[in-house]
Amino acid sequence: MIQAYVPLLILALVAGGFAASNILITFVVGPYRPTREKLSPYESGMTEIVPPRQRFPIKFYVIAMLFLLFDIEAVSFYPWSILLRSLHFAGFIEMLIFVAILLVGFIYVWKKGALDWE
Amino acid sequence: MTDFYNNAIGHWVVVTVAITLLLFVVLTATAYTVWFERVALGRIQRRPGPNRVGPFGLMQLAADGVKLAFKESFVPAKADTVLYVAAPTIAVAAAFLSWAVIPIGLWYNVQYWIADLNIGVLLIFAFSSLNVYAILLGGYSSNTKYSLLGGLRSAAQLISYEIALGLSLVPTFMIVGSLRLRDIVEYTVHWGPYTGPIPLILLTPIGFVIYLMAAVAETNRAPFDLPEAEQELIGGFLTEYSGLKFVMYYLAEYVNMITVSALAALLFFGGWYLWFVPPVIAFVLKVIFFLFLYIWLRGTLPRLRYDMLMRLGWKVLMPLAIANIIITGIVLVAVQG
Lengths: 118, 337
What we know:
The complex is a heterodimer. In chain A, 69% of the residues lie in helices and 0% in strands. Chain A is mainly α. Chain B has two domains: 1-69; 71-336, no CATH class. Helix content of chain B is 67%, strand content 4%. Chain B is built from 13 helices and four strands. In chain B, strands 1-2 form a two-stranded antiparallel sheet. Chain B has a two-stranded antiparallel sheet with strand order 3-4. In chain B, helix 2 packs across helix 11, helix 9 (205-218) runs antiparallel to helix 11 (243-268) and helix 11 (243-268) crosses helix 12 (279-300). Chain B starts with a helix and ends with a helix. In chain B, 50% of the residues are buried. Chains A and B meet through helix 1, helix 2 and helix 3 of A and helix 2, helix 4, helix 5, helix 6 and helix 7 of B.
């Protein structure tokens, strides 16, 4: 069974190798004349004043957390959607309960303003 | 194909050759997609577009590629060299991986695929998620304000729309009962006198609309091209990339566009079935139509603001997708009991 996935590995290696060799080739064939200005970070022509890695809005973390929750929900829909024919009415009701619980969480998140970007 | 599976060496030789061929075909398609976009966008804006290099400007991409290959390739002093070079590689590898499970109908009853897996669509979602790593690592490793912020923004955008994208296809799986792309294309209905495959958009029109919007956002294209909002972020995570490293990111983006178009054709428009049109031509025509839709959108719609983008993803598309699943479920259960 696992043998069926080996082509994916080959494809990943071939595609990744293609990209990597392309990038490495430019280091060989292209010129290399570095200057201090050229290697400095792009700041619209200004000298860098503050280091780039500063604190950034907590919103990004919140979105990432919510993504984990709701993406797991989405993935749990998949096996259910395929088996719906054999699960019949009972399986559908079970999923409705699951969605209802999730919906409560979604409404909570919405009301808390986690989905707003001000 | 099954005979080759039992013959160990011959099988892997065939698979490797097939993969190289596929890579070649997709790369060529990508190059001409760029040409097609530039010409179509030019016509939309009442200018000719590229028309100097070769007939109709068809060699423009080859010229650009050669030019960029001989450009100076440098790593910014403050950048993390390994990650900085690895990020575009991840982008390209992830973009091509989806093509392993996409079947291409070559002729009647002859289809081509690299791996016929029963979790096909799930794998495609997994690989498109890898794109987040490429963008985040690219933004982080450049060690510039604009790159970091652009990378974070794109990552947040990608993961937000991934949920809507994943949920939009669930009704299709409920109807067909399989994640294998070939099964979805070959899904047969018996409607009165008609027996045969149908475009599934007839059964899940809302799913298609959600898929289309989420997919455009997922590939970072206009009007959702926030990562490249040059007025605010210079070039987003691409700011510090130049030469072929930059090309690799763009290559990944265009391959993803073709993937999304092919998926739309396979999932909603009956794949290689189109009246009497030969399968491979029908498939290519459908893919070109969706690529044109991408360009049309880019030529028509202004870019969204970031808060609008997040609101659309979380507060409109996601609830709509869940409602769509429940309604489809009610209808299916009512029909089948």
